[in-house]
Amino acid sequence: MSSAPTPYHHGDLRSALLDAAEQSLRQGGAADISLRGLARELGVSHAAPRRHFADKQELLDAVAELGWSRVDEEMRAADLTVDGQDLQAHLIARGIRYVRFAIDNPALIELMFAYKTSGRRPPPPPNAVGPSSIDLLVVARRRGELAVSSGQLARAVWAQLQGIAALAIGGFIPDVDLDAAVASGIEQLMVNTATTLA
Q: What is the rounded radius of gyration, in angstroms, for the C-alpha atoms of the chain?
C-alpha cells in the first residue's frame, strides 16, 4: 500500500523554492534542479510547487529575474558609495560591484544571460539593466558629456566587465587586482568616448 503524499504545509513555498533552487544552482547547476526534488527537500508534496511554477523552466526564469533584481540592488548600493561624483566614478563603482557579484555567483550569471536571450519572457525592466548603466549614460549623453551614443558605451562597458569576470572565474588572471582592472578599463573607455569629464 502506497503512503499518502506529504500535505502542502509550507508558509511561503514560492520563496522557499526560489531559495532552494538558487542553492542547487550554486552546487550543481541548472541541470540538477527539479521541482520534485525541491519539493522533497522542502518537505511538501510533489505537486505543491506547481501552485507557483508550472514547470522547471518557469522556476528557473523566476530565479533569473531575482538575479537581475539583485544586480540592480548592487548598482544602487554602488551609487551610494560615490554619491555626488562624476559619471566615471559611478561606472567604476558599479563595475567593481558587478564583477564581484559575477565571480561570487557564476552559475546564476550564466542562468541570467540564458534567460535574457531566450525570448521566453521580456527582458528585465530598464532600471534593472545592471552593469550597462544605461540610465547614467543616457543622462550623460543628453548633457553632451559623451561623444558616442549611450548604447555604444553601455555595450563597451558591459563587454569589458563580462570579460574580466569570465577570465577571473576561469582562473586565467589569478594575480590581477580586479578592482584596479575594472577602474583602469573604464577610465580608458571614458578617455575614448567622453567629450567632457565632470
A: 20
CATH number of 64-193, picked from 1.10.357.10, 2.60.40.1120, 3.40.50.620, 3.40.50.2300: 1.10.357.10
73, 101 Cβ separation under 8 angstroms: no
d(CA 46, CA 5): 8
Name residue, grid cell 551614443. 149
**What separation in angstroms does the CA of 161 have from each of 94, 115, 123, 187?**
10, 19, 20, 13
User: Is the confidence at residue 151, as pLDDT, over 90?
Assistant: no
Q: Where are the beta strands (DSSP E) in the chain?
A: none
Mean pLDDT of the 107-116 span: 85
pLDDT at 192: 84
Nearest to 69 by CA among 25, 110, 129: 129
Question: Considering the chain, what percentage of its residues have pLDDT values greater than 70?
Answer: 83
The CATH class for the domain spanning 10-54 reads mainly alpha
Residues in the chain, how many?
Answer: 198
The residue extents of the domains of the chain are: 10-54, 64-193
Give the model's pLDDT for residue 136: 83
Q: CA–CA separation, 161 vs 151, rounded Å?
A: 15
Please say if the pLDDT value at position 46 is more than 50. Answer: yes
pTM of the model: 0.83
